[in-house]
Design goal:
With 119 residues, this protein is mostly beta strands. It is built from no helices and 6 strands. It has a single domain, classed as Immunoglobulin-like, CATH 2.60.40.10. The relative contact order is 0.26.
Length: 119
């Protein structure tokens, strides 16, 4: 209600799509980051022991930094792991800055854009 006693009620209909999020088993996947001081980059090494599906699997590498107090994550690399192979990817982060601390994670992404939990 406003100061002039105006009152209004509006109904909205909305649809909630219940999505099943997949999880990444930390026993089957690993992520490690290695600073390369001589070239000023960080190599992010992803490995997985399970074989991808017939269609392959999309993954997204995400990064956060001390600049945002590790609260804001950004997508820095999206790639497809070919069908019938295990995840084995080395990605080089060439956008790092001196004096900034970084954390990396990755997620599986399905065809609809839904993502798994972080690993």
């Amino acid at each position: 209600m406003t100061n002039n006693l105006y009152e209004s009620i509006t109904d909205y209909e909305f649809f909630v799509d219940l999505v099943q999020f997949t999880t990444l088993d930390s026993n089957k996947f690993s992520i490690e980051a290695f600073p390369k001081m001589d070239s000023g980059i960080i190599e992010v090494d992803l490995k997985g022991t399970s074989i991808t599906s017939e269609l392959g699997t999309n993954y997204v590498i995400r990064r956060t930094s001390s600049e945002t107090n590790f609260k804001i994550w950004e997508d820095v690399c999206t790639f497809l792991c070919p069908a019938g192979t295990a995840l084995n990817k080395i990605w080089r982060d060439r956008t790092v800055q001196s004096g900034v601390w970084y954390k990396y994670s990755f997620q599986r992404r399905d065809a609809n854009g839904f993502r798994s939990n972080f690993l």
